[in-house]
Amino acid sequence: MTASIDFNSIKTQKGRLLETIHETAKWGAKGKWGPGETETGVCRLALTDLDKKVRDWFVEQVTDLGCQVKVDQVGNIFAIFPGQNEGVPTGIGSHLDTQPTGGRYDGVLGVLSGLEVLRTLKENDIVPHYPIALVNWTNEEGARFPMSMVASGVWAEAISLQTCLDLESFDDVPRKFGDELKRIGYAGETPASYHANPLACHFEIHIEQGPILENEQKKIGVVVGGQAFEWNMVTVRGKSSHSGTTPMNTRSDSLLATSRIITMAIETAEEHGGLATVGTLSLEPSSVNVIPLEVKFTLDVRHVEDAQLAKIMNVIKKKTEEIATTSINTKYAKPLSVTFDNITTSKAVKFNQTNIDTVKKAALSLFDESQVREIVSGAGHDSCFTSTRIPTSMIFIPSKDGLSHTPEEHSSPEDVENGFQVLLRTVLIYDEMRAKK
Amino acid sequence: MTASIDFNSIKTQKGRLLETIHETAKWGAKGKWGPGETETGVCRLALTDLDKKVRDWFVEQVTDLGCQVKVDQVGNIFAIFPGQNEGVPTGIGSHLDTQPTGGRYDGVLGVLSGLEVLRTLKENDIVPHYPIALVNWTNEEGARFPMSMVASGVWAEAISLQTCLDLESFDDVPRKFGDELKRIGYAGETPASYHANPLACHFEIHIEQGPILENEQKKIGVVVGGQAFEWNMVTVRGKSSHSGTTPMNTRSDSLLATSRIITMAIETAEEHGGLATVGTLSLEPSSVNVIPLEVKFTLDVRHVEDAQLAKIMNVIKKKTEEIATTSINTKYAKPLSVTFDNITTSKAVKFNQTNIDTVKKAALSLFDESQVREIVSGAGHDSCFTSTRIPTSMIFIPSKDGLSHTPEEHSSPEDVENGFQVLLRTVLIYDEMRAKK
Fold it and tell me: What keyword terms does UniProt attach to this protein (chains A, B) (predicted)?
């Protein structure tokens, strides 16, 4: 049987994907949150012994399916399922590494859904028009080596090979990315490069990691891109003095100014349809009866449009200046100095319209329009890097309570199955489309 | 010559008090802030070798003046300058210990101004009607042994002897108060008790440690009491989630709620004529792209009236509940849980009217009414404990920029001299009044 769009004739093994997810969770199961055997998270940091075990298992599985396996210079594994024609493979992929307090689904769902696609094709004797490459990207989380999505970044030639290989781990005795890659046997020879080792496109299925699909009772999110974001370290410096002896009208309370800035920044982002979060904050000198001299906090601001993000940041900086230098409603907390130090700015990602349409078509072949929704990814993914070089899009399934990066991270068995079905159909529709060109 | 109110006939040694202050600063000089030899602070923690040195020097000085020296069970030194009559001594005192980042004046000014009073009486052959006890209270700062004003507290029988002796120091190898007292030779046998070792009254001269006198160009503050204050640990608990994937209207951002609470609490205190300060704040989990789950901060609220302090706290708690449980202006940041855990509540201190009038009379014998001001102490002092048992009041001199607990703490030579003159006259007026009873 050749690839075809008669989806109803394809037999799938319902529940097998979830079983596979739970099977691989044995390599790193951690963080028990319920009585059931599968009610734990997973801690499987990149290039550790546990990562080696799941990689070895993965290579064995795809080899059994007849795939050719290529490992590139940063440990990305490309499992090439043969097609009827030679040609650049259709890419699907995600990552098998996790956060230290990771769940069972983040990343893992994407790689194992891809494996389930290959298994299904094999069992149904479907040979696609073109090869399919199932990719396991290295160190997506940036949890052990502090650069998220670094290996898809090298592949996309956005990050240099050497930068990646020289990354030092957060271990007590820090180890280099390149050394750990060799130690576990995944320092491959395939060039880590989108043009030396190309993919025709990239599809990635992932948990949403947010509450939108669940709240709106949607089954599938068709991901159209990723938000722009900017991180700043904000330093507010006032005057330290005794809490009992300093009248209000002579204070320069850096924490009072900070409190106003935080409230204003979050309200400003919200008014413009963006997001703002202060996730870290520290103050000096930190004593109950001393007015803080200096507060430092990180400000994470996001918007789906680059221009809107820039506008929000402008408003926040302008209003911060007003809070710091003039009296706002009250006569105290002035004047202070406030500085913004940019940590990182990431442009908005726009996925390829053809790929978005393909995912949508696949989703609508299974569900009503009311059950499918376009969505913008709030988090970064390997697809954000692949999208800079090749047509890319993503599929989201609901996350229970919007939780992720925690052992309780959960998606229902039904949602896991739905996601796989959409991925399978997406790949086959895209393959058919390539053949017709 | 006997004690008299002909102040103009008394010869004083202008500048000697300041010289003495600088002389004793050699035991602990630290924190250079200017080119001059005296431009450092002092670090002389209670019951250290440095404290022993300044105590030994102090005992030598007062013994030379003909004082009888008594050391009580918590190391308080009572130097009794004889009077014409037997009787309970008129007390003056303060403390020779400092903060780790202390200046040259906090506490030291009070003890050495008392010494200068005794020197002046001696040189002028003035024998007061009643004895004068100059007191060096132990560990006022609570910086080495974590209980401020503990030794005057034991003397006032507000704190038990054993509690004090068992206090453990903040040293790397903690040491007990009682053991250190023995080690430096200041574990005396005089009962630490206001009725076994009484004083007729207590006058204390101190730097203001705030900016009021300086800002209003006053020479002398006549201290009428101490503020009431309440410290709480406030815990705000929301929901932790990803900063990029969590829409604003589904967040329970504990730091946003905290920012609103801090602003509201400070504004509420100010509206009621009180003070509010948040001096410490910590949050979990503390990651740039994670909405904080929990924030803990200390809230220090003060007012000169107990009833007003209670009212402010009620308003703050009520408004906090509103912020935590309902939408205020925006639709996010709800609902959260907020708890207030009381750390300490300290009642307002009212000094004795006769003592206040005595200080005022002394001050007005030297300065215009426009140069003298009644003031409430923002900080705690040994006089707060003595005032619970004996007639007490205090004299403040201006603090440059309101600074204290920092090496730059400064009062001008003129202000130091003024303070001493007011203390001298206060003691003589009070002594005369006792004789006339």
Answer: Hydrolase
ipTM metric: 0.85
CB contact under 8 A, A279 and B286: yes
| Of residues A227, A283, A378, nearest to B281 (C-beta) | A283
Q: How many residues does chain B have?
A: 437
Of A240, A269, A330, the CB nearest to B267: A330
pTM as predicted: 0.85
| B364 φ, ψ (degrees, to nearest 5) | -75, -15
Segment B376-395, tens digit of pLDDT: 999 999 999 999 999 999 99
Query: In this predicted structure, what is the pLDDT of residue B287?
Result: 85
Inspect the interface and report whether the beta carbons of B245 and A377 lie closer than 8 Å.
yes
Q: Which of B358, B375, B360 is nearest to B427 (CA)?
A: B358
Residues of chain B with pLDDT under 70: 1-4, 327-334
Q: Could you tell me which chain B residue has the CA closest to the CA of A243?
A: B277
DSSP B193-237: -TTTS--SEEEEEEE--SSHHHHTT-SEEEEEEE-EEEEEEEEEE
